[in-house]
Specification:
alpha/beta, Rossmann fold, 4 domains, seven-stranded parallel β-sheet, five-stranded parallel β-sheet, 19 strands, 34% helix
Length: 554
């Protein structure tokens, strides 16, 4: 008998409970109880999805010699073959893929691994061929090379890097939810990191703004070991140059490139951070790119997953010799949907001879990680970072601006009503109907698909204020996990699925019964949103939505 009887709970209550169950047998017992009792399709789907996830985690050690490739995604194949060092096994995999699914990308992954392994085998017993290195200013002397004013680009090889730095964004005087989510994930990552590598590295929270000091206790409660903050009334609104200058000055303090007077500080004694994490909000995206560029490193943007582990690399540009391979330690693996929109890619930021790529940086889609429980008993070190700000950074003065009263953080709502290109026949009315449904719920807000954001629709003034990038759900927008997610006129591309797939219940409204969104929805209402949304609104207002969904169960 499982600890949880699903028939005694509503689906909104089951979602968070099931996420903590890692025993597939217990989940199967729950499924049997549900089938023998309430037999609710969305509840069974929820349990079945969890079983699949748990079993996929248990099957992490896949035997490449016996695995059925048709059961694996291209991403699974890529993850599997990177640990295979036997060229014959890889050739067998390639032949089986050709005879079965015959996926171009999967074959490319296997062929690439064969090339890597055979290159290594051929190099054994032979002198490795070192890749010739020519400094960029010598290789292209006719160019005004961009590294000329950044002499540290090749002067930091083998420098010391430590800690994970988290930029904690605030809006309207409040610490935004994604900042808390990132701190919780950073805490989890660095706890595991310190255990795996026998280190004592920290989670460092960075606060910049007019009221930065007000949030120090909060960021410690959510996981920070050290808080470095700079407060100035001129920083009430986000500004590109001063925010970038302040963050980078903090990051270099106590290192080889520290500003004058900050060569030695008592809270940091390394060159630059090992990892940096930013929110993938409008301001966070800007700041992450500017900071990583100034620190001469790379950035993986709009990530939805992070983990740290070693990586075996055979790229000659990274290992320095053709046909050789090298294991890089402590690599931050940054997962994001790839540009094809069909698979996930894992981005790595790897050093190479004569060039360090640190910090390893990522921006994180809001809602990607669970909100941690704050512990206000935690203690942490606090640094009030003093720095003179150049008046030239504030030449442009913002005299007047408007702010939406409700804000656009969708991650904390019980219900999200999202609309897509299905509003095209009458965009203004489509938004109006969605807002009517939002108002019918106690705690709901409006979301949009990327198709609406990038369209050339014309909206009347009274709804135009709601059509902003901040409301976008998906790969390059917010990632939400409400109790109920209503997707009206949204086809369900992988980019959008990323943003809503963890919702407890997904209700899709679409004229196409075979739309992609059907594959990950609990309910599909076949119909025109202009007809269905008013009915849903009425059903919510009269308390009949549950009965309406039961009637639509098939």
């Amino acid at each position: 008998m499982p600890d949880i009887d699903p028939t005694e709970h509503e689906i909104a209550e089951l979602g968070p409970k099931i996420k903590d169950i890692d025993d597939a047998d217990e989940l199967r017992a729950m499924l049997e109880l549900e089938e023998a009792g309430e037999d609710r399709v969305p509840v069974k789907t929820l349990i079945e999805d969890r079983i699949e996830k748990v079993e996929s985690e248990d099957d992490g050690d896949i035997d490449p010699e016996t695995v059925d490739l048709s059961d694996l995604t291209v991403a699974d194949v890529a993850n599997m073959v990177r640990d295979v060092d036997d060229a014959d096994v890889l050739r067998d995999l390639l032949e089986r893929e050709k005879a079965g699914e015959d996926r171009k990308t999967a074959k490319s992954q296997i062929e690439g691994r064969i090339e890597s392994v055979e290159g290594t085998e051929e190099a054994e017993g032979e002198e490795a061929t070192e890749v010739e290195y020519v400094p960029p200013e010598e290789k292209y002397p006719e160019l005004d090379h961009p590294t000329n004013d950044k002499q540290w680009v090749e002067g930091t090889v083998g420098a010391e890097y430590r800690d994970m730095w988290v930029y904690c964004e605030t809006q309207a005087g409040e610490l935004v939810d994604v900042s808390k989510e990132m701190l919780g994930k950073a805490r989890e990552l660095m706890d595991s990191y310190n255990e795996d590598y026998d280190e004592d590295e920290r989670v460092v929270a960075v606060l910049i703004g007019a009221d930065a000091g007000d949030h120090v206790e909060d960021v410690i409660a959510y996981g920070a070991d050290l808080v470095v903050y700079h407060e100035d009334p001129r920083l009430e609104r986000f500004r590109h140059q001063p925010y970038t200058e302040i963050f980078c000055d903090m990051a270099r303090a106590g290192g080889d490139l520290a500003a004058k007077g900050r060569e030695e500080v008592d809270w940091k004694a390394y060159h630059e951070p090992r990892y940096t994490v930013f929110p993938a909000t409008n301001n966070g995206r800007d700041l992450s790119a500017l900071v990583q560029g100034e620190l001469d490193s790379g950035l993986a943007s709009d990530c939805s997953g992070l983990y740290i582990e070693n990586a075996m690399i055979s790229n000659p540009a990274k290992v320095g010799t053709a046909g050789d391979k090298k294991e890089f330690e402590r690599v931050l693996h940054m997962k994001r949907p790839d540009f094809s929109g069909f698979e996930y890619s894992t981005i790595l930021c790897i050093d190479k001879p004569h060039r360090d790529f640190h910090p390893q940086g990522a921006s994180v889609i809001p809602g990607s990680f669970e909100m941690p429980d704050p512990d206000f008993e935690r203690e942490g070190e606090v640094v009030d970072y003093e720095m003179e700000l150049d008046d030239d950074w504030f030449k442009v003065e913002v005299e007047e601006y408007d702010r939406l009263s409700g804000g656009v953080d969708l991650t904390g709502n019980d219900v999200v009503v999202a609309v897509g290109r299905g509003i095209g026949d009458d965009p203004t009315e489509g938004i109006e109907l969605a807002l009517d449904l939002v108002d019918a719920f106690d705690d709901a807000d409006l979301g949009l698909s990327r198709g609406v954001i990038t369209s050339s629709y014309s909206f009347d003034g009274h709804v135009e204020q709601y059509v902003t990038e901040e409301r976008q759900i998906g790969e390059s927008g917010q990632e939400v996990e409400p109790d109920v997610y209503i997707a009206a006129g949204i086809s369900g591309a992988i980019q959008h699925k990323v943003g809503c797939d963890e919702s407890d219940t997904i209700i899709a409204v679409n004229t196409d019964p075979d739309a992609d969104i059907r594959d990950f929805s609990d309910y599909l209402i076949e119909g025109d949103l202009f007809e269905v949304l008013p009915q849903l609104t009425e059903a919510v207002e009269t308390g009949e939505l549950g009965a309406m969904m039961e009637a639509s169960d098939d």
